[in-house]
Amino acid sequence: MTIEKLTPDQLRVATEATLFEFKNSAALTPAKPCTAQNRAVAALKTALTVPGPEYHVMLLGGEGTGRLDCLYSVLNECAAANAEIENPDRLLLPIRGRMNQYEEIPLQNSHAQTMINFCQQVAIATINGDPDLQSLMIQELRGGFSASPQLCAYIDWLDDFSLLLLAGENSEFDYRELHRMIPVLLHAGNVAGSAIIRDVISDTASLLGTLTSDPVSGRTMINAGSLIQASGGYLILDALRFIEDPQHWRILRDVLKNGLIPLQAIQSVASSQGGGSLPLNGNIPLTCRVILICDSSTFEQFLSLEPDPEALFPVVAEFESELERNDQNSQVIASTIAALISQYRCLPLDAEAMALMIDSAARYTGTQHRLTLSRTGLSRLLREASLLANNSGEAVITRNHIRTTIEQARQRLLIDRRDAVQAILQGEMQIELTGKVVGQINGLTMVGAGIQSYLEPARITATVRPGDGAVVDIEREVNLGGSIHSKGVLILSSLLAARYSPHAPLSLIASLVFEQSYAYVDGDSASAAEMMAILSAISCVPLKQSIAMTGSIDQRGQILCVGDINKKIEGFYRLCQQHGSVADAGVVIPRTNLRDLMLDDDVIQAVNDGHFTIYAVTTIDDVIEIFTAMEAGLEGDDHQFPTGSFNALMHDSLKQFAEENKHDHKDD
Fold first, then answer.
1. Exposed/middle/buried for residue 172 (C-beta within 10 Å: 0-12, 13-18, 19+)
2. Residue 581: helix, strand or coil by DSSP?
3. pLDDT tens for residues 528-558?
4. Domains and CATH numbers, the chain
5. Helices (H), 281-350
6. pLDDT at 493
7. Which helix (H) or strand (E) holds 508?
8. Roughly how many angstroms between the first and final C-alpha of the chain, as a whole number?
9. What does the alpha-carbon distance between residue 255 and residue 92 come to, in Å, rounded to a whole number?
């Protein structure tokens, strides 16, 4: 057997304070925004410097990883190279012979509004029958705005048409239509350099802009949305906004796919003088790079909107959320903490406190061998510890301040858990912690999500009777069980048959249930405990109730790793502690979870004092021996188990079920 009782030094990997050669962290150089994100930075720089406007970027990374600070750092570096580029307002010129269609004309180093004013004067002169003013304004236009063939062609058209009207050759013409010949001002909003715009996308106008016109002067203007405001620069968007309103994504997808902003999609709004706006057709070229921000959960949802995001975002810049734990990376985290100290104006840490902060960075990952790059939890811990030290009149944060802050945070988060524990202690929820019971075991299940999650022990029971070899998942039958949990139960059926009845059908029906559970159950982390409950019910061998179990199981009886291992162990230990009379209390965990252990001091001390035991196991046979105190028994070459072993008893019990089932069929 491979049962191992864990020793205190296996329950946490502690950072040595001697790793830090400083009196306090004020001596550290704070980390730069893109520290430990070399891969993401390289991807960003590639996407932002490839020629052509169509190279958009998807940025993947969780909140708290410093993704925005790093992104702005890279964007500012890229934008600095374009600081001298002018981004003036632009004109949309009417296209001759195409009603309400416009083309964009860049007027570098010119005055778009001045040209519009001259065109308006031509229209007014024509309406008022003033050929002298018309001629003067046309001369001004020819003199100042002949920089391109398009401008010359437009001025010729305006001159020819207005002269026809002045000559009275089109008496039925509605002179108000002259307003349609006046260029539209495209007000971008930025004067020079590459714009860096972040848009929260409150509505369609936020992306595309709005169109207004003055019915008196005929002046029409597009107030640019973020896609135009960021022209020549960078537009940062959050994928979550598109998930909340898919219509916004459909608009942006068409823009990115075609590289054009459709004028007809720009909303018209009333001006201060009242009235509507001219209908516009045509397109404006998209000249900005779009950077779409996602975290892992948002990305999965985004795929339902856009199954092929790589077609629109050729480059994915993925931010690391964790680092491998070693001395070098511990120093990286220390410099990140120094940056947080500077950002939030916290007190410095001494070396012992910094070592405990590094341990906390490992704890946030749920494993010994990784360190979190998320600043959210670390900044919260740091700021509260700094406040505690400051209120105590201390100039430096010590290890005790960090410990106290961790305990205070834990107590704040345990209101719901305290209610659950009280229900157990008062007998409202029946969880037995002493003695032995047939077909019953304590599983370790988590309730809630994220930092609000906590352990709620589950009393798992099994019953068996003669039947056709099925394992009935009662949670599934009443629609309280998820597909992963049901998969785990089906694996139990296969394991039972392969292990104990490989040459004949099983002749029993086993029923499993999480007693007094009224919430949705999913996941397979209780499948090993469920297997033990079934084995106990079949063999009639009682199981210890002072020991709880977590672990998944496969068809070969191997115990597999699970998540939230630290919270599960700590939760059961504290339940036993509050119960007060639990002898031989302990938990059984998969051996493959050993590298995940970062347990609190009180649990480690209890293990050291012999008041709590943590067993690491590899196979179901290990679990059998812990819970029954019987030899499991290995199958011999003759496919028989040793006499007196648990597995031999199982084999005999199944034969008896087969006989009973056979007898029942004869009676029928």
1. exposed
2. coil
3. 999 999 899 989 999 999 999 999 999 889 9
4. 20-35+322-412 (1.10.8.60), 90-290 (no CATH), 422-460+522-662 (3.30.230.10)
5. 296-305, 327-344
6. 79
7. strand 508-515
8. 45
9. 18
